[in-house]
Design a protein that fits this description.
heterodimer; A: seven-stranded mixed β-sheet
Chain lengths: ~250, ~90
């Protein structure tokens, strides 16, 4: 009973601060980007805008600290000289925010529901997040290729939906086809603990530690001869092994 | 073409084009949930089946009804039988 009460208090505290951030920070970021747009190219404005979104994510994910901790683990060094396709497992609604750990300029591939969130949905659309459910594969490849050519990385949750439990669902192949068609290297990202912090079907946050583990890139030269299906299976196997290791260590 | 030949040839398509282990290729295997194909992979599957069996497969309603590997065997058998009847 007391535990439940504490949980509600914690969530009241978080969501109040979250709302304040929406009211205070988003207009601030918008004004900043709009003013700098006058002196800058469209490309630089978009870069700044996406950066502002990452900072927004950083602020929001810092709000519940120290009750919720996010540990970013990098296996090797980050290469920000070129765009990548990030492949992430998906257990929780928090996952889109967790991508703020990435130093790359990126957009996320999402279903249509994030676009329906008031305010945030508008910003996601403006940042060119792609709604893969409402476009053909050809339209998707065209728009995603353009972003990659501009140097923008793309974040996928190829399970397509949050997994029901700790078992990773089957991957859709769009991310892997895009990588093979555009000559882009892949980076798998494994996340654990997020399913405890915000389980599927709940909007209540719970205390815990989220691990975001970025694996070494699968460079294009090493995957170019593979079929999309073989590539997605290889990445699935690799991530499944890593998630098991992460969970057995927890 | 016998039923067994169709099964063996179809399984070979799944092994070679999709690198799926032979042990998983049972008639009850659901193409999407058990074997992990998605709608885009189905296009590759059709291309591979066309090439392997030397037939033309139209992406019509019957293809959309395919759920299991057994459905694929029946689908190919129906096309091959149709060819013989012609």
């Amino acid at each position: 009973m007391i535990g439940r009460l504490m949980l509600y208090l914690f969530n009241f505290y978080f969501y109040t601060l979250f709302l304040l951030c929406v009211i205070a920070l988003i207009p601030l970021f918008t004004i900043f980007v709009a003013i700098t747009r006058v002196f800058s190219t469209h490309r630089n404005t978009m870069r700044r805008f996406r950066r502002a979104m990452v900072w927004w994510g950083r602020v929001v994910s810092a709000l519940p600290y120290p009750f919720i901790k996010i540990r970013y683990e990098l296996d090797g060094a980050n290469d920000i000289s070129k765009p990548f396709i990030f492949i992430c497992n998906h257990r929780s609604a928090t996952d889109a925010f967790l991508m703020k750990v990435l130093p790359h300029e990126f957009v996320e591939i999402v279903n249509d529901w994030p676009f329906k969130i008031p305010v945030l949905g508008f910003y996601a659309k403006f940042a060119a997040f792609l709604d893969i459910r409402n476009m053909t594969h050809e339209q998707f490849v065209e728009q995603a290729s353009r972003l990659l050519q501009e140097g923008v990385s793309i974040v996928f949750f190829p399970e397509g939906t949050r997994s029901k439990d700790r078992n990773m669902g089957n991957f859709h192949s769009a991310a892997f086809r895009l990588a093979l068609e555009t000559g882009t290297s892949l980076i798998p990202v494994c996340m654990t603990g997020n399913e405890i912090v915000m389980p599927k079907g709940s909007s209540l946050l719970r205390p815990g530690t989220i691990r975001v583990r970025q694996l070494p890139p699968l460079e294009w030269e090493n995957i170019s001869g593979m079929t999309p299906f073989a590539l997605k299976r290889r990445v699935w196997d690799m991530m499944n092994r890593e998630l098991s290791t992460m969970e057995s260590a927890a | 073409m016998t039923e067994q030949e169709i099964i063996e040839k179809t399984n070979r398509v799944f092994e070679e084009s999709f690198e799926i282990e032979p042990a998983r290729l049972i008639p009850e295997a659901h193409i999407f949930t058990d074997l992990g194909l998605d709608s885009l992979d189905i296009v590759d599957l059709i291309v591979a089946l066309q090439s392997s069996f030397g037939v033309k497969i139209r992406t019509d309603e019957k293809v959309r009804e395919i759920r299991t590997l057994g459905d694929v065997y029946h689908f190919i058998a129906a096309i091959k039988n149709g060819e013989q009847a012609e």
